[in-house]
Amino acid sequence: MNRQYPWLIFLCLFTLLQISAVNAETDLEVMDVAERTFPQQEVFDAVVEAIHQATISSRIAAEVVELNFDVNDVVPKGAIIMKFRDEEFHARVAQIEASILADKAQSREAFARQKEATSDDKRVKDLFKRKLVAQAALDKSNADLSAANARYQAVQAQLKSRQAQLDEAKVKLSYTQIIAPYGGVVTERLIELGEMANPGQHLMTGLSLEYLRAVVNIPQYLVSSIKSAENPTLILPDGRQISTEEITVIPYADSKSHNFRLRVDLPAGTENVYPGMFGKLRFVVGEEQIRVIPQSAVVQRGEVSGVYVLKDDQQLIFRQVRLGRALADGQREVLAGLLVGEQVALEPLQAAILLKQNSSKSHL
């Protein structure tokens, strides 16, 4: 009887192991590792910048007498940002306008003299044909007509010169008011009220938040495929995704990195996006086959990612895997550790319990 006890114990253990394996096969929900077609994506670091941004400068030497906007103020298009003292420029315009009036009077006088000289010259020529006047009278008539024509042309030239001076003076007068070329926000003010501005001196910096773009640097081998990409997406750190519009590739590669600079325009009026913000710009450049598993099957133990694999002999093991990016529909890319067709447990907690039970029974 004593010799039969070991055989009875072995038979009981074998029965328990068989039951555990059957439970793992029938109760544990598994899924095959599969390859699926996903959009092939390229992602680059991007920086947001304003399409319209400028630093305005003075074109004249004048004193600032009015400052209508300061840093962080919203400036409408066409608004007067600042004014310079303009009395001198108004006086210059008035002086030239008075000179033009005098020139116009001289022009009328010269025209009358020219008309009179033309009439006299015609009359003298008729008399000379009839031999009623001498050659000297004809010569004097021709000289008077030439002088009248020259006088009229000189006055007209002077009038044109005065008009050009007036146009220039009016342009300089317009420089006494700095007008916003587009709506935007003031980011920096570089002059104070009452200061004297000099030609070329920077006065104020501003930008428009209405039209923005994302800027990235891309390697040269991807230029052709990214130029044909449709609807790139800007991904912000807060999770927002913004579909962009027109792509512009600057046709010049950096001599050191050989990267191309690419600009992607954002939709007009995009809210809560500001120049200088960081993000990721995603391009879809084709399709690719990717090994995937459900994200719910992944177990994270510290820095180690793993899954429970059900082998062909119904043995359950825990295997470390190297994962890629998260995909649509709760899928996760597998870079290494699993082969297509292997089965992974969809309920890691249940798989861990079964594995522990099997391990405990195998040590009995």
Task: Write the topology of this structure.
Blueprint lengths: L3 H24 L2 E3 L1 E17 L2 E5 L4 E6 L6 E2 L4 E5 L2 H43 L5 H40 L2 E3 L4 E6 L6 E2 L4 E6 L4 E8 L3 H5 L5 E3 L5 E3 L3 E7 L5 E7 L12 E17 L4 E3 L2 E7 L5 E5 L1 E5 L4 E6 L6 E3 L2 H15 L2
Antiparallel strand pairs: 1-22, 2-11, 2-16, 3-10, 4-6, 4-9, 5-8, 6-7, 8-10, 11-15, 12-13, 12-16, 14-15, 16-21, 17-18, 18-19, 18-22, 20-21
Structural notes for this entry:
The chain is of the alpha+beta class. It has 4 domains: 25-38 and 289-362, conserved putative lor/sdh protein from methanococcus maripaludis s2 fold (Beta Barrel), CATH 2.40.420; 43-52 and 210-286, Elongation Factor Tu (Ef-tu), domain 3, CATH 2.40.30.170; 54-84 and 177-209, Beta Barrel (OB fold (Dihydrolipoamide Acetyltransferase, E2P)); 87-175. It contains 5 helices and 22 strands. Strands 2, 11, 12, 13, 14, 15, 16, 20 and 21 form a 9-stranded antiparallel β-sheet that branches. Strand 14 and strand 15 form a beta hairpin. The longest helix has 43 residues, at 87-129. The radius of gyration is 44 Å and the shape is elongated.
Shape: elongated
Number of strands: 22
The radius of gyration is: 44 Å
- How large is the share of residues in beta strands? 35-45%
Largest sheet: 9 strands, antiparallel
Number of helices: 5
- Which structural class do you get from the secondary structure elements? alpha+beta
Assembly category: single chain
Secondary-structure element series: HEEEEEEHHEEEEEHEEEEEEEEEEEH
Helix content: 25-40%
- Give the CA-CA distance, first to last residue: 22 Å
| pLDDT < 50 stretches | 1-26
Provide the domain count. 4
- Mean pLDDT comes to 86
